[in-house]
Design brief:
mainly alpha; 5% strand; two-stranded antiparallel ribbon; 397 residues
Length: 397
């Protein structure tokens, strides 16, 4: 975990306090009573003037530094609906992920009324065009669709007659499950598939699952899983378990210093020999989508061997960091919600708690400054006060 920014405000106070202490020992030693009186007057005046300034720096560090978004903040963010958080409407569906996580971790479930209301208003104002190049993009609404926030008429806006027809007419493996999810939800709404038709579609879904790991494989497997579950084919979902574990272990990567871990997007990061990602100098937020879908697979299929949940938690904790003076974004809320669910799964019980050294390392910068100041004070105290004869005169060492 990163250093709590509120503590960095103490650094100027520690430095000034150490300097004043050294000044006291240096000036007051061997001084006359009058010189001591003037020295004390200057020291107290300086302390009086500097105290408000040091307090301001400490306060500023606490108010403008970084903070880690909590589950409660993420819940409040989702409850407010996307209109309160962004002027870019294509981010509307981005709250579906945090809402799903918050509704799954066993804590207080989010109130989705505001999100549902604002979502409907946005769809009404931005209906999709016939060619799909303008208006609402249904790919951004898949999470909110599974949360049941879309109206029946909303689903009908995204009808693609060709895709509907090919669901049953084509015998080829289903290659793009992300694009077929909405069509299957619509078909189940208007004309539910019969048992034999559901078997046909689920067969296409399973045949389309290629060998893993592969680029964006976690996303591909997740939507195949969702299609099968929407058809009630839970036994067929289990057939994806081995592929899911292969995808998870193949794309798991750890930061070069061993402090964080996440799931990368695909094969371009893998060594050809062992299918193990190369260590990255620094993991960044661009792998949040692939880590998101990978985590959903872990929730369904379990945590495979080789994935360190503690390192994954530290990656999410970094994504959940924001400056106190800046707005919260969907990625912050999603990372906080993912951490909440991560801490509730039974595999997390096997993760050892942070050591005392790891806890104290949060304050390493302040402690280093404190040790440096104490060292300066110690050196000043140990400085000899004897008079040394030199050729030109005398000098006090």
């Amino acid at each position: 975990m990163e250093l709590d920014q509120a503590w960095t405000g103490l650094i100027p106070a520690v430095l000034v306090a150490g300097a004043l202490l050294c000044l006291c020992m240096g000036v007051l030693d061997n001084a006359t009573d009058k010189e001591k009186w003037y020295a004390w007057a200057c020291i107290f005046s300086g302390a009086f003037v500097l105290s408000p300034l040091l307090w301001f720096f400490a306060y500023l560090g606490g108010r403008t530094g970084q903070e880690q978004v909590s589950r409660e903040q993420a819940l409040e963010y989702v409850d407010g609906g996307f209109r309160q958080h962004t002027s870019r409407p294509f981010n509307a569906g981005s709250l579906g992920g945090p809402a799903w996580y918050l509704g799954t971790d066993g804590g207080q479930a989010p109130n989705l009324r505001e999100l549902e209301k604002s979502l409907h208003e946005w769809i009404d104002l931005n209906p999709p065009s016939e060619d799909g190049k303008a208006g609402v993009n249904y790919l951004s609404l898949l999470d909110v669709a599974y949360l049941g926030l879309l109206r029946d008429d909303d689903l009908r806006l995204f009808r693609k007659d060709y895709s509907q027809r090919m669901l049953l007419e084509s015998d080829k493996p289903l290659r793009s499950p992300r694009h077929d999810v909405m069509q299957i939800l619509l078909r189940q709404l208007e004309d539910p598939l019969t048992e034999s038709e559901a078997d046909w579609v689920s067969g296409r879904v399973l045949r389309g699952a290629k060998e893993f790991p592969r680029y964006n494989g976690a996303e591909d497997l997740y939507f195949r899983m969702m299609i099968l579950e929407s058809l009630g084919k839970y036994d067929e979902v289990e057939e994806l378990r081995d592929k899911a574990h292969a995808q998870l272990t193949g794309t798991w990567t750890v930061q070069l210093d061993g402090t964080r871990g996440c799931f990368v997007a695909g094969l371009e990061t893998l060594e050809p020999s062992e299918l193990v990602p190369e260590p990255r100098r620094r993991l960044y937020s661009g792998w949040m989508p692939s880590s998101d879908y990978s985590f959903r697979l872990m929730i369904r299929f379990g945590v495979p061997e080789g994935v360190d949940l503690a390192l994954f938690d530290k990656y999410l904790a970094e994504i959940a960091m924001k400056y106190r003076t800046s707005d919260m974004y969907a990625n912050h809320a999603k990372a906080a919600a993912m951490r909440s669910l991560l801490h509730s799964i039974h595999e997390w019980e096997e993760v050892p708690p942070p050591t005392t050294l790891e806890k104290w390392s949060r304050y390493r910068l302040v402690l280093a400054v404190l040790v440096l100041s104490l060292f300066c004070v110690f050196v000043t105290m140990r400085t000899p006060k004897t008079v040394v004869e030199v050729e030109e005169g005398t000098a006090t060492v």
